[in-house]
Design brief:
Chain lengths: ~290, ~400
């Protein structure tokens, strides 16, 4: 038996090594709070590995395994299979990975687990780049955002994780945002109760990678939804429900002006990005409505 | 006890079934495929009470098995060739988290060019990844070494995964009559699986495999080294107990007619059977030759091998892998290291690649060369023993000027 020394109230200690204003920290605290002690977590190397811990220390009060970057879903599936073999159907198995470990290198094993209908909960906290390795672009990096590997701005749009998992007819999938924790926690609970694979795609502002004042994390998360850069919706029983739809989109500047990753854009490019965002949003909403 | 006609893959499956594996994750690849198929059939028909996870790649196959084993069950997977190469990243993970998985590896060469057939390069590329490696001569040995491997891998002083290597097609698809013991004796020999060291259990939470600094990484690697070292003794003990229970004698290194031999050949796998046959034949002609069969390549049984080779002046080592960039293949290198303080002439041979048969005449040619070297009738030897004379003229190579 190992001694757990921290005296925090929840399953995550008070002091952790995440950056100030980290959106992911808020997510993992809430996720752990909803899932509870009867949970086993798989974390790949990446920002969330700060919670795996270092050396003799861990920042989680539940059992966990840090696998490879691309096999979070496969490791979770292995744990699930072993629990099933032992007759344990109550323990939740959760994979907690960033966008790179999910939509890039981990997509294959995720696809496999969903196709097999393995009962695992997969959470992708999406901070829109490889932040832990130093802010390199991923396939989830948005159009025109600057990263260390897209220094003049990304020339393509982002990969749509939700539509990929919906194409697998996943039993439950939802997007979420940290500016609405009630909605986020409800979705975690729903995912936990799903009899089969479930996925949450959570928008995760990152002050270090997006280059903004750490006190603005929640505001930015909210602005992303209000400007049409992030859409809150759920997929279940083969149907889509849009959770919130702004009556009128706010100007994109509300979202991008305080972010360093868009600082290099010219006035023309800003205009182009505004139009791109609006068109993409409208097209996307139409698509979702057709799936309602 | 009963006799059954089984091929090498069938024998491996029989061993996994009788070890009562609880989670199976496998991805088909020639010549391993019938292992994946047969295991799924056993689960479907209820003959084996296990969870079958039909994964989408070998990378996931070993990931599922490793995570399952950490969750406290005996997990199974199997692979070959490109599949093992794809697993490589996880191979190190399994060993590092001390998950004692036993995995049949059906040896096959690697691209390029494409080959489907036997060679040891696939497993040899993984030789320093912290797994034990046992090479089998025949189908009975596949079954026996699998059973022994479970006992050794799961020993609390070892906790090291094991590859049981069987030559693609030569063993995997070769039907042989083998002796299958009663289930109860196997149960008694292997015991029930019990997770030791690290495990995923909500009643005793721990985090496995987090980032480790340079102040401790060496020590954790050292723990693996100690586990591997301990395996030498544990294997010997297990083989002795196996002999008492099952009546068949196995060892880490087998010397065949080596005691009075003028020259000996060190080899691995199915070609050892042919080599023994050649030894018998050449001895009838008055030529004193012998064979050394290495069963355990990892851990490498240095003392035992040295005991057999001591005093031999001329030794040949036959590697069924290329050993590019080195003077010889991996078995040759290992043999040289063991014999570094002895005065002897160790010659490196490479052959049997990409399924090329190693017939009597190839082995005979090696022995003849070694005998001539011993009698000082020649100095050189033919390292690539079975390469054709037109090697530099066939496609993909500029014709020599």
């Amino acid at each position: 038996m190992h001694d757990i020394k921290h005296i925090s109230k929840g399953l995550v200690p008070h002091g952790v090594s995440a950056c100030a204003g980290c959106g992911m920290e808020l997510i993992i605290r809430n996720v752990m709070d909803v899932l509870g002690e009867d949970t086993i977590i798989v974390i790949p190397p990446g920002c969330s590995a700060l919670f795996s811990g270092y050396g003799e220390e861990t920042a989680l009060k539940i059992p966990g395994f840090q696998g490879n970057l691309e096999n979070t879903a496969a490791c979770a599936a292995g744990i699930r299979a072993a629990l099933n073999a032992k007759g344990n159907t109550h323990t939740t198995v959760v994979g907690f990975a960033g966008d790179g470990a999910t939509v890039d290198i981990g997509l294959q094993s995720l696809s496999g687990a969903i196709e097999r209908r393995d009962k695992i909960l997969y959470i992708c906290y999406d901070n829109e780049a490889y932040m832990n390795t130093g802010i390199q672009g991923s396939s989830s990096t948005p159009f025109m955002a600057s990263t260390t590997t897209t220094p003049t701005g990304k020339r393509t749009g982002r990969k749509d994780l939700m539509q990929i998992v919906i194409a697998h007819d996943i039993p439950y999938a939802a997007t979420a945002s940290i500016h609405n924790l009630t909605d986020l926690r409800r979705k975690v609970q729903k995912a936990k109760e799903t009899d089969g694979p479930s996925l949450l795609h959570i928008h995760t502002p990152c002050p270090t990678g997006w280059r903004y004042d750490p006190s603005k994390t929640i505001e930015l998360a909210k602005a992303a939804v209000q400007t049409g850069c992030w859409v809150l919706y759920e997929y279940e029983n083969e149907k889509v429900t849009i959770n919130s739809k702004p009556k009128e989109l706010k100007p994109l500047e509300d979202y991008i002006k305080i972010q360093g990753r868009f600082k290099g854009l010219s006035a023309e490019q800003r205009q182009e990005l505004q139009e791109y965002t609006k068109t993409s949003y409208e097209k996307y909403i139409k698509k979702l409505e057709s799936m309602a | 006890m009963s006799y059954k006609m089984l091929d090498g893959n069938g024998a491996a499956v029989m061993a996994m079934k009788m070890a009562r594996v609880q989670v199976i994750s496998a991805y088909p690849i020639t010549p391993q495929s019938t292992i994946s198929e047969k295991l799924s059939e056993l689960v479907e028909t209820g003959e084996l009470d296990a969870q079958y996870v039909r994964v989408e790649s070998e990378h996931s196959a070993l990931s599922v098995a490793t995570a399952a084993q950490l969750t406290g069950v005996r997990a199974a997977t199997a692979t070959a060739s490109q599949g093992l190469a794809l697993m490589h990243e996880v191979v190190g993970m399994t060993a590092g988290v001390r998950a004692p998985i036993v995995m049949p590896v059906v040896n096959r060469g690697l691209a390029a060019p494409w080959t489907l057939w036997c060679e040891h390069t696939d497993a040899m590329a993984e030789r320093d990844m912290g797994w034990m490696q046992f090479y089998c001569q025949n189908v009975q040995e596949v079954y026996d070494m699998m059973i022994i491997a479970y006992k050794v891998a799961e020993d609390k002083n070892v906790l090291t995964p094991a590859m049981v290597c069987l030559d693609g097609f030569f063993l995997s698809h070769s039907m042989q009559k083998i002796d299958i013991p009663e289930q109860e004796i196997v149960d008694e020999f292997i015991g029930k699986y019990e997770a030791k060291n690290s495990y995923l259990d909500t009643s005793d939470p721990m985090f496995i495999c987090n980032l480790t600094g340079s102040d401790e990484y060496t020590e954790m690697r050292y723990q693996q080294k100690v586990g591997m070292d301990n395996a030498l003794e544990v294997i010997e003990k297990a083989q002795k107990e196996f002999e008492e229970k099952f009546g068949r004698k196995l060892c880490m290194v087998e010397g065949y007619k080596t005691e009075d031999a003028d020259v000996v050949l060190v080899a691995l796998g199915s070609m050892c059977g042919t080599a023994k046959y050649v030894v018998n034949k050449m001895r009838q002609e008055g030529k004193k030759v012998g064979v050394v069969k290495i069963v355990s390549y990892r851990p490498f049984p240095a003392e035992q091998l040295k005991g057999i080779l001591d005093g031999k002046k001329v030794i040949g080592v036959f590697d069924r892998s290329t050993g590019f960039g080195s003077k010889g293949g991996p078995v040759w290198n290992e043999t040289c290291a063991v014999m570094k303080d002895s005065v002897c002439d160790i010659r490196e041979y490479i052959g049997g690649l990409g399924g090329r048969d190693v017939p009597e005449k190839t082995i005979e040619k090696i022995f003849e060369e070694l005998l001539e070297i011993k009698d000082k009738k020649r100095k050189d030897h033919t390292t690539w023993i079975d390469v054709k004379s037109n090697a530099m003229d066939i496609r993909q190579v500029e014709k020599n000027a």
